[in-house]
Design goal:
mainly beta; 8% helix; elongated
């Protein structure tokens, strides 16, 4: 709700005084928009994999405990199709593949495996997020819009942990997380535009419990009719617990950072 109030306030601020002052910006009028970007998130990841044989394991902070890097540039892809005056569909995708190697200073239980203190553990942790959504702009003008949407974040995890003494423990999870969205976009001039988006999800049933919050704030500059450039802040927070193959997998993960991108629209 607070996010929606901010968007409404911004809409009031950028409302022109007269009709002739209304800017026509391609960001709000192009039927098709594609974006290619570079995302530089700061990542924190805590994983716990419980075993029905060994019991509850301890949470592992991958960046600190296993030596994984907390920042890396990753590609980001996005597309939007305005198939009607007030309706649109969108997709956005990024993937982050990381590895680490560290001599651990304590015993770590991961599923049915126990990695003992002073052993050298090599880890791999691959993650992707694919967002697909459909939106309706309940407020739509030439230079501004506010809308709501429904969609899906497909969060995929593939991880492995290896040491000479213990061998390899490997897990993978694919979690479809439905979300409700609020979005807004505003033309400041014919070349400058700002926008924002908030996705929220929370659901608990049977052997699954998940929460997701996704936030995007963008500013774009379009010096050419069909090509533009932009800077964005992106944040994604995921809390997930799921039972699979007699194991309980828990994730607490966050991604926050800048996104540089280039757009093409027509």
């Amino acid at each position: 709700m607070r996010f929606l109030l901010v968007l409404l306030a911004l809409a009031a601020v950028v409302t022109p005084a007269a009709a002739q002052d209304v800017p026509v910006n391609p960001a709000l009028s192009d039927r098709f928009t594609f974006a290619l970007g570079a995302f530089f998130p700061k990542t924190t990841t805590e994983v716990r994999i419980d075993s029905t044989r060994l019991g509850v394991g301890a949470g592992i902070q991958l960046e600190d405990s296993l030596g994984m890097e907390s920042r890396a540039w990753v590609p980001n892809l996005a597309a939007r199709w305005r198939f009607a005056e007030r309706f649109r569909v969108e997709m956005e995708y990024f993937a982050l593949n990381r590895s680490g190697e560290k001599v651990i200073d304590r015993d770590i239980q991961i599923g049915d495996s126990v990695f003992t203190a002073n052993s050298n553990v090599t880890s791999n942790f691959d993650f992707f997020d694919l967002r697909v959504s459909a939106g309706y702009s309940f407020f739509k003008r030439t230079d501004k819009e506010l809308g709501v949407g429904i969609g899906l974040h497909m969060a995929g995890y593939d991880m492995s942990f290896t040491s000479n003494a213990t061998g390899t423990s490997q897990e993978d999870v694919l979690a479809p997380l439905p979300v409700v969205s609020l979005y807004g976009q505003f033309a400041l001039t014919e070349r400058w535009a700002v926008g924002g988006r908030l996705d929220r999800f929370s659901l608990s049933y049977e052997n699954f419990d998940g929460k997701l919050t996704s936030l995007g704030l963008d500013i774009t500059y379009q010096p050419f009719r069909h090509v533009g450039f932009g800077l964005s802040y992106r944040a994604l927070f995921i809390s997930l617990e799921a039972e699979k193959n007699s194991r309980v997998l828990s994730f607490q993960q966050s991604f926050e950072g800048p996104l540089l991108f280039m757009t093409a629209g027509f």
